[in-house]
Write a structure and sequence with these properties.
Layout lengths: L14 E5 L2 E4 L4 E4 L2 H4 L8 H11 L12 H11 L6 E7 L2 H16 L3 E5 L8 H5 L4 H4 L9 E4 L7 H4 L4 E6 L2 E2 L5 E2 L2 H14 L2 E5 L23 E5 L9 E6 L19 H17 L1 H17 L6 E7 L2 E6 L4 H9 L2 E2 L1 E3 L3 E4 L7 H17 L1
Parallel strand pairs: 3-15, 5-6, 5-7, 7-10, 10-11
Antiparallel strand pairs: 1-2, 2-3, 4-12, 8-9, 11-12, 13-14, 14-17, 16-17
Helix pairs in contact: 2-9, 3-9, 10-12
The structure holds pyridoxal-5'-phosphate.
Pathway: Amino-acid biosynthesis; L-arginine biosynthesis; Amino-acid biosynthesis; L-lysine biosynthesis via AAA pathway; L-lysine from L-alpha-aminoadipate (Thermus route): step 4/5
Function: Involved in both the arginine and lysine biosynthetic pathways.
Main location: cytoplasm
Length: about 375
């Protein structure tokens, strides 16, 4: 028998079912899921409306290539359009976040015919060769050198260096408005404004990577809507298909038709089952007004976490339901200890305990998370 390749630290836990904000392990223990598979189950586990749409689609057809039409795909585009700001009118469908980032970079290169990509300290954009090249963490990159050689890293939130960083050799600038993996660092308004101005000045494309912070996670449909600064392209993924694989790029009009046939493609992109799930997830998103719920629950979670009384806590970081507690020490042991208290969380950077719960977590769930963290901070 083959065995699974190991490249994650695997926890001694087998998850067998989920319902909205909760999951259960094989021993019957229930957990509040503030890990959500790296942010994927934001619309809840097995959300009934999404599951019903998937089941109905399974009875119709499970694969249709992008060079043929499909009604589930049309329906997704129609639902998704309702949450896309004016001026963005093209969506490129992919299967994962890293593929979306690759697509955005290809658009930048094709439009400008230039080579240099600007990215930032503590960025995370994915694991394939292009997206890895613009990811900051040296541990993720060093075994795979040489990566794409023309990447210039600037310091996240350093406004002063932006003009020097972005010159007319730059095809695109990629940045997460709220950095997830890198430590829940929130961009400042002045930083994103400076990037916008510099990119426009040299006709480089500004890409916001909203794969983790987008789709309502921060309390607006898209994190950049907090800032009043618009990119040329933004990437999204994770929660959009309610748990099924998706990644996409949303582009301003003039960048919609940059690829000639043969220059881009993906076998599974726009899969009808994924599209049916994504149409249903987006319909729920709009109907219940997910961002407004996130604003309320996110501020409650941030407030209660900031009341933690522990000498280990430096501060609470993040936005909406993308919240981290920065510790004076490594976060990993606390994430493991939280598991034993029925809470699934994540780390971000080295010393941040990260919470990415589903939008429907209740006030009681918030209390349970805060109480559990309080306990483990005392005992670890
Ligand atoms: C901001 C950001 N970009 C890109 C990615 C890569 O997405 P995927 O793992 O779906 O390829 C992630 C995944 O965590 C992410 O958080």
């Amino acid at each position: 028998m083959v065995r699974l390749a190991r490249y994650y630290k695997v926890y001694p836990l087998s998850i067998i079912k989920g319902s909205m904000q909760y999951v259960w392990d094989s021993g019957g223990n229930r957990y509040i899921d503030a890990n959500t598979g790296h942010g994927v189950a934001f619309m809840g586990h097995s959300n009934p409306e999404i599951i019903n749409a998937v089941k109905a689609q399974l009875d119709k057809i499970t694969t249709v290539p992008l060079n043929m039409g499909n009604e589930a795909r049309d329906e997704f585009v129609s639902e998704f359009s309702k949450i896309i700001p004016h001026g963005f009118d093209t969506v490129f469908l992919q299967n994962t976040g890293t593929e979306a980032v690759e697509t955005a970079i290809k658009i930048g290169k094709k439009v400008t015919r230039r080579k240099t990509i600007v990215a930032f300290t503590n960025s995370f954009h994915g694991r394939t060769m292009g997206s890895l090249s613009v990811t900051w963490n040296e541990n993720y990159r060093k075994a795979f050198q040489p990566l794409y050689p023309h990447v210039r890293f600037g310091t996240f939130n350093n406004v002063n260096e932006v003009d020097k960083l972005i010159d007319d050799d730059v095809c695109c600038v990629i940045v997460e408005p709220v950095q997830g993996e890198g430590g829940l660092n929130t961009a400042t308004v002045n930083f994103l404004k400076a990037l916008r101005e510099a990119a426009s000045r040299v006709n480089a494309l500004l890409i916001f990577d909203e794969i983790q912070c987008g789709f309502g996670r921060t309390g607006e449909a898209w994190a950049f809507q907090h800032y009043g600064v618009e990119p040329d392209l933004f990437t999204a993924g994770k929660a959009i298909a309610g748990g099924l694989p998706i990644g996409l790029v949303v582009a301003k009009g003039e960048f919609g038709d940059v690829f000639s046939p043969g220059e881009h493609g993906s076998t599974f992109a726009g899969n009808p089952v994924v599209m049916a799930a994504a149409a249903a997830a987006t319909r729920v998103f709009t109907r219940v007004n997910v961002p407004s719920i996130v604003k309320e629950t996110g501020s409650l979670l941030a407030k209660r976490l900031s009341e933690l009384n522990s000498r280990l806590v430096i501060r609470v970081k993040g936005m909406g339901l993308m919240i981290g507690v920065e510790l004076r020490t490594r976060a990993e042991p606390y994430v493991e200890a939280l598991m034993r208290h029925g809470i699934l969380a994540l780390t971000a950077g080295v010393n941040v305990v990260r919470f990415l719960p589903p939008y429907m977590i209740s006030g009681d769930d918030v209390e349970a998370i805060v109480n559990a963290l309080n306990e483990v901070l005392k005992t670890q």
